[in-house]
Amino acid sequence: MGDKTFTEFQTDLTFNLGQRDDISSYVDDWINSAYIDLCTKTRFWNLKVPKRFLFPELDATDDTDTVDGTAYIATPDDCVSIYAIWDVDNDKKLTRINKRQYIVKTGREDTDEEDEPQFYVRMGTNIYLSPTPDDEYTLRTYYRKCPAAMTDDDDVTVIGAEWDEPILDLATTKSMLRLRMYEDFKMWKNEWIESVGAKMGLYESEQDDTRDILKPDIAYLGFNR
Prior knowledge:
By secondary structure, the chain is α+β, with helices and mostly antiparallel strands. The protein folds into two domains: 6-55 and 159-210, no CATH class; 56-145, no CATH class. It has helices at 6-16, 27-40, 99-103, 164-178, 182-204, and strands spanning 43-44, 47-48, 59-65, 72-74, 79-87, 92-93, 95-96, 119-123, 126-130, 138-145. Helix 4 runs antiparallel to helix 5. The protein is elongated, with a radius of gyration of 23 Å.
């Protein structure tokens, strides 16, 4: 979890913006906007984040029981994206399909066609299933959640403390643009992109055990001494 409290974020952001008296009503929103953007966006100006940062603190699960004859279950309220859905009762993974594939499937209005769900697609606030469930099944949704906004003075972020400064600096940068502090905005933006881009290697190292990191470099293939 983060180390900097919401009050400390407020104090530091106000300082970065020159101790202005006319921004107090905006500071809370600017901090939370930066916090949630960092946890959910894949692009910041000209920096593209590969598959979003791997915040393990944002991985979540939700168990929901289907209802006989109801073709959907609710999407978790804090869901950003779904990784997978698992049928707990039948110990199997459902197959993701797209909206077009779901729409052309038949049998949703025919009670004789109901069966164990095999496919799913997320549409709006619901996850639609095919076939329509013929019974109660427990479906476990594995998903990426959106963190709750900080509201209380002692609140901290749910992600690691190493991200406190990037959140503060992102809030500062976005605020400077809103305040038309264009020269300061350009400087802070470039420094933020450079510092956060360097952090990508930290999260890419999480994947080292899934790669053949000791394979010969392609540049040396066919090279004989």
